[in-house]
Amino acid sequence: MRSSSRDALAASERQLTFDPYNHDLDNNDCFSPDDRFLVYDTRAIPDGIGANGRIEKVELATGEPTVLYETTGQTADGPGVGAASYHPSENRVVFIHGLTNCDASRPYAQWRRTGVMVDEADLGVPVFLDARDVTAPFTPGALRGGTHCHEWSGDGHWIGFTYNDALLAEIEVRTGESVNLRTIGVATDLGAPVAVDHDADGENNDGLWFTALVVKVVPHPQPGSDEVSRAFSDSWVGQNGYLRADGTRQQRARAFLGTTRDADGNELVELFVVDIPDRIDRPGDDGPLGGTATTMPGVVAGAQQRRLTRTVDWPHPGVATEPRHWVRSSPDGEHIGFLARDDAGVIQVFFASPRGGEPQQVTHHAADVQCGPRFNTSGTHICYVADNQLQLCDIRPGNRFGRSTPLTARTDAPPTSPVWSHHERVIAVNRLVDGPDGTHLQIFLCELADGALQ
């Protein structure tokens, strides 16, 4: 690999949390807008989000935790909360919340969860962002299942998420047909809440924002086509979209991974982008935005999805799915970072342009990169994990491009879930730590040395 000639590590590392439970950083925006706090959930392993009842934040200066939200009536079956993310400029947090009626007969599931926001000025009070309506007639602006991995847009006016549909999940169980397909949606405030009919079982809920799907998925993609059966691991492109080839700006887009079929019918994961229109309240050709009893909610009019990579002729085709990672964009929207295998079969970081073209290999490690890249605020560097070390990589044009520097010492187990502070001086990671009360996921801070980003 290409690496810095400096012998000293470019960061110092310290443990921030110590309490004997997990402090799980979501691979999203965990730093508060002023970088004073980190938000996390306390899910146990392997119980997961469904059995977790608490969202917390911790102060970087003191290590003092604060409970932001706690469920009522929490059991192993739900409702469950997790995967928290801070608003970019306000002290508000969004996270997954299982349905409030979860029990042993209807537990937390991918299609039984929604997005909830908590304002730190009103701690403990959940605001349901996306409405849920699983009883006909279905409601435009409401979905029917599970939203997940909620991510604020750069201006904080939109949220992107992945989606699974409860009605299609039931059909799949009943018929064995592969129709419970993961896809991608967005939500925004259209000025009025979305109200739905409230059923006796408590399956439906109103939502503050209007939600809709933006990516079309099909059960059986045509071999050799750009159709996808699964859309996942998505993220916003740029803080304010990206520049089109003609110089105009596409204000909103989501990059994502999509499962295609090659000409021989084999599954192949590729990188895609979907351009999102200004209005999401108009149905497209797929049918009503609220869906039908047998079909998914329709994709909004004007959403344009495009395939960015065609790796079928690479020595090792496809975007890497292990390690699981989310694609990420540079702040200016010029680069979309993802993992794939180089000619030698080693997983590396690659960049693709949202305008298309041949991807560019960024890293050149001897062993696999172990997590997806994260960009700093200035867009000059990425961080990621390789060789069980947190790595810093220069992505500025010129001979420094792709030069990597280890930030932490090599350890028996790799750090996980790196998240970069807004002021760029701190990268938070998770590490498993043994203690008298067992092994727990703790938060560590990697504080960059002066000049590390020069």
Tally of alpha and pi helices: 1
| Structure classification | mainly beta
Regions with little confidence, pLDDT below 50 for 5+ residues = 1-6
Main pleated-sheet profile = 4 strands, antiparallel
Shape, principal axes of CA atoms: globular
Number of domains: 1
Q: Care to count the β-strands?
A: 31
Average pLDDT rating: 96
Radius of gyration: 21 Å
Q: Can you tell me the CATH class?
A: Mainly Beta
Helix residue percentage: under 10%
Q: Strand order within the widest sheet?
A: 1-31-30-29
Strand percentage, roughly?
A: 35-45%
Q: How far apart are the termini?
A: 20 Å
CATH architecture: 6 Propeller
> What name does the CATH topology carry?
Neuraminidase
Question: What can you tell me about this protein's structure?
Answer:
This protein has 454 residues and is mainly beta. It has a single domain, classed as Neuraminidase (6 Propeller), CATH 2.120.10. Helices cover 2% and strands 36% of the residues. The chain has one helix and 31 strands. The strands form nine sheets. A four-stranded antiparallel β-sheet has the order 1-31-30-29, with no helix packed on it. It has a four-stranded antiparallel β-sheet with strand order 5-6-7-8, with no helix packed on it. Strand 26 (381-386) and strand 27 (389-394) form a beta hairpin. Mean pLDDT is 96; it is low at 1-6.
